[in-house]
Fold Succinyl-CoA--3-ketoacid-CoA transferase.
Amino acid sequence: MNKVKNDAEEALFDISSGTTLMLGGFGLCGIPENSIAALVKKGVTGLTCISNNAGVDDFGLGLLLKTRQIKKMISSYVGENAEFERQLLSGELEVDLVPQGTLATRIQMAGMGIPAFFTPAGVGTEIAVGKEERTFEGKRYLMELALHADYSIVKAWKGDTMGNLIFRKATRNFSTSMAKAGNITIAEVEELVQPGELEPDAIHVAGVYVHRIFQGAGYEKRIERKTVRLS
């Protein structure tokens, strides 16, 4: 099976309107920049996007919000995106806010083939409405369902043509779990190498989970919020 594609447009060729997407990244750290740009260009609408947050107003998933291509966000943080906040408050955007640990675990469970799990997060709050609750050893827990997607789109530091991926430091974030939770996983990498060139013990996601891979270009790698300390 040849997994290698020439660019983001070729890798995302069959993504259509109404699709559910998982997009790796934490804020702006490790986001699939090339793929997001290709989705904007493709013009698909009615997307449900699963991501930690929605980037900022002019970068990351904020670009898809700006063009009204996202119908629903499943995320844990509204964050630094004023347009995200505006669309949420005005009712233009459907938003499912999920506690961050719960979001991460729901994705992990999907990748592991576990349909549901129990967590104490959200007990007694609006998050608990409509969910099964059980008590274990005197403590209340909510049942949360595994979270799947039609496509998972991640960005890695290095990858080989078999789909094995290595992430650099904090860019690993949600991506390693998301890569295992989509029906089709698409990876963009900064450097694409031949099989055998990656140290086996350094691989974070095995190629068996990745269906398509391409080498990206022109990464900005913006910093969401720069903080400095006066000397």
